[in-house]
Amino acid sequence: xxxxxxxxxxxxxxxxxxxxxxxxxxxxxxxxxxxxxxxxxxxxxxxxxxxxxxxxxxxxxxxxxxxxxxxxxxxxxxxxxxxxxxxxxxxxxxxxxxxxxxxxxxxxxxxxxxxxxxxxxxxxxxxxxxxxxxxxxxxxxxxxxxxxxxxxxxxxxxxx
Length: 160
What we know:
Blueprint: E1 2-4, H1 6-15, H2 22-33, E2 37-40, H3 41-50, H4 52-60, E3 64-66, H5 70-82, H6 97-109, E4 112-114, H7 132-136, E5 145-146, H8 148-155
Parallel strand pairs: 1-2, 1-4, 2-3, 4-5
């Protein structure tokens, strides 16, 4: 199973317009129906704030929403501790609370995370500056994380 980060589904919606790429979106809808794709409630809410039409489409397709449970909250708190974030003082260049909830949700349900946040070729010296893909790759987190384009490539589907 793959779980979408808000950045990824927004990237896809913006860069592959549904009117111009209907086979791609039909495939996404089929994957949602098959239970292969999910999205955390936090990520879905972010999508809704930025692109209400995309959120409405996801809901119409009945995407599985991963609700934030105590287990996910506890995992997000563990990640927050790993990053040394205290008193909700997140670094502007790194992950924020929602990002940690999204990562924790993917970890708890055993999903790969689809995220289009920028990849950091070199880890910043200050761990609080890590972005979603880098946090996913930390020892003790180990959530597979890749972009929407990588998802398409890995599917090997030819869209006609």
